[in-house]
Structure formats: structure tokens, C-alpha cells
Amino acid sequence: MKNWIISRCLLVLTLSFLLGQAQFASAQESPKQLDAWLKRFPRADANGDGKLSNEEADAFRKRLQTARDQRSNRNQGGGAVGEFTIDPGWDAEKFPDHAVSYKSPEEIKAIYAKQIKGNQPAVVSFGKPESGAMRIVGTGHSFMAPGYKTLPKICEAAGFTQPLHTHTGGGVKGGPRYKWEQENGIFEFDGKPFPKLLASIANADWEAMMWAPYSQARPEFYTCWIDFCKKYHPEMKFFLSDNWPTLRQIGEIPEIEDYFTEAVMDRLAAEKNERSVEFVQLLRKDNPGKVFILPTSDAMVLAVKYYLRGELPGVEGIHRVIGKKERSLWRDQIGHLGPGFERLEGYVFYATLYGRSPELIERKIDFEDEGDFPSPELDRMFRKIAWQAVINHPLSGVTDRDGNGIGD
């Protein structure tokens, strides 16, 4: 694990230095551009004269970049931001001997059976679906919850049942590191194992695992799950949601939504994609052809662009925190999705997992929405955006060269 950490840190530091050199370079903006900056960020006017000079603009850019770098250093794996102490045991050559993952399938099942109540089974299992559906286990936090909620409904309308078994939690409690410690009864949970997923992975058949990233991510937070799954199911595939740009990524919250131009969204997306792609490529090093990205970031960035073009009917704003509109893409500063956008995430999951465009689903999907929002027109846009995001992401594993809506 130490070699993983060293290589990871060196790569991140190198990339951060190169990006910082490029972005900190002074630029001579036009008067029109300076006026636009002043309108979006009045606080950039350091001397308060009502005008923005190139020197003031450059200084403000550097302040924003510094804030982004500070957040990025705490959040290299993407996902919701939160600081926590990583147990030094993660730097050891192996986990403690009493880790549940070292035990036999029968022992793991027996340990979990003592933790559950009522008639809940210690092992969740599904017969092999004739439909070709993947049996999936997963962890995740509130950024993943909308997709976990809507994916089964989408699959049902597509003509099959989605076998899904998850162990989730809010914020850090849904991250792969936290769940590994909790399930194994190690570090923070020493002697208190709760192997909800481990029991089922070791004793039933599965084709895939899904995660949501969290801050301070390390490759070993994921490779521990990968190694355990491959021990019992060598052909399993793994899918990591890359989440989406948040206000925390910007550094200083804009005062008006005009800040979010297509160019700005492209920049934020590039920053997100760089981290997530780099991270997944590290995981792929020892697991070629096994690890993929669920491109939720690209989907939400595309959604912003469609909104700016007036092509998201019924959507009123980008960030409710800024624009105060209920029907916005994001509903809070943390970055939780606004109303209706749980569909978009579910469509991204479906398109990535099964290599089919949700635009091809003909049956009505029972999302149990209230009222007339999202409208059928907006729902069609969600499906289109999801497929575009998936087939154009280099690590989704899905392409559609002939444009028939079915992965090549």
C-alpha cells in the first residue's frame, strides 16, 4: 500500500504544479471581460474605485485558484468534501488479522447473522437473470442515492429487474474507506464488524460493484474491495461515480448565476475529469478492463449548457443557493441534486452499466413524481444528455459509433 501512496502523491503534486503555473500566469483582459468579471465578483475590486484592472483581476484569479487547490488537496478522489483522520493502519502492509475479509465465507456469514434483527437474511442473493442484468453491490452517500433510487425503476421499464444490494450512509459514512472499516470491524470499528456486503459477496454471485467517491481518497480504499470481490468473482466489474462540480470547487461563491457560462462549466468539468480519470487509471493499473467511470459530472455539465440554451423546459435556475429558484439543477451549497435530476443520474447509471440509451425505453417509467414536473419533454432531454455523457467519456466503457443507441 505504501508504494501506491507514494506514486499517487508524486503524480498529484506534479499535476498540481503544472496546472498552477498555467493558471497563475497573468492575462491581459479586454475592458469588456473586466466589466463582466466586476459584475460577477464585485469583491475583486480591491481599491473600491468601481473599476477592475488587469492587476486586480489577476490577483483575484490567484485567490480563487488558491482556494480551489486547498479544497482539491483535501478531495483528490472527488465527491462530497469532508475532513477526517485516516487511521495509520492503512499504511501497514496488511489489515489487522481479525479483519472479517480474511475469514471464510461461512465465518463471515455467521458474524453478520449475529448483527441483524428480525427475518433479514444474512446473505442477499439473486438467481442468474435471464435478461442479462448484472447483479450489483454498492456503497455510496447522498450524491449516489438519487441514482440508486431511480435505476431499478428505469430497468423495470426497460423490461428487467435490477438485482441491487447496497450499504450506504450520509457523507463520509457512505465512502468506501468508511464502509470497509465498518464491515471488517477494524480501526474506527475495531472489534465491531458489520459485514453487510462482505457476507453476500462471499456467499452469493455478483457481476458488478458501484461506489461514490469521497474526499482524501486513496487507491487502496477501492482496491481492498476489488481484491475481495475478485477473490470470489474474478469477472466482476467496478463502477465509480465521478460526481459533479460543486460550489466548493469554485472557491468563492458567485453572487449571480451569470457566472456559469459554458466556458466556466467546461473548465470546472476539466478539473473534475482530470482528478477522476487519473484516479481510475491508477485503479486500472492492476485491473485492466475492470474499472469504469459513471460520468455524472459530464451529464450535469451538459445539463447546465442545455439550460443556458433554454432547452431544459421547466428548469428555473442553476444553483438554488444563488438564484433562489426551487427548480434548479442543484439545491444546496454541498451540491445535492435539484428536483427531477435524480432521473438524470439514474439514466447515467443505466446507460453506463448496460450500454444502451435510455432514449430507447418505450414503456412509461414510474418515478412516483408529484405534479407535472419533470415534464415528458424534460425527461426526454435527461435521457439524451445521459447518453451523450456516457458515450463521450473515455472511461465509461461505452461507445456508439453507428449512433443507434446501443453500445458498440
Summarize the SSE layout with pairings:
Elements: H1 2-23, H2 31-40, H3 54-73, H4 105-113, E1 136-140, H5 145-158, E2 164-168, H6 176-184, H7 196-203, E3 208-211, H8 220-232, E4 237-241, H9 247-250, H10 262-284, E5 291-294, H11 296-308, E6 317-319, H12 320-323, E7 328-330, H13 341-354, H14 376-391
Parallel strand pairs: 1-2, 1-3, 3-4, 4-5, 6-7
Helix content: 40-55%
Q: What gross morphology would you assign?
A: globular
How many strands, what sense, and barrel or not for the largest sheet?
Answer: 5 strands, parallel
CATH topology of the largest domain: Rossmann fold
Low-confidence stretches: 2-27, 66-81
* Number of extended strands: 7
Give me the secondary-structure category. alpha/beta
**What is the count of structural domains?**
2
* Total of DSSP H or I helical runs spanning 4+ residues: 14
Give the CATH level 1 class of the largest domain.
Alpha Beta
| Secondary-structure element pattern, one letter each | HHHHEHEHHEHEHHEHEHEHH
The separation of the N and C termini measures 36 Å
Task: Write down the oligomeric state.
Answer: single chain
Please tell me the overall pLDDT: 87
The CATH level-2 architecture of the largest domain is identified as 3-Layer(aba) Sandwich
Strands of the widest sheet, in order across it, are 2-1-3-4-5
Q: CATH H-level name of the largest domain... which superfamily? A: SGNH hydrolase
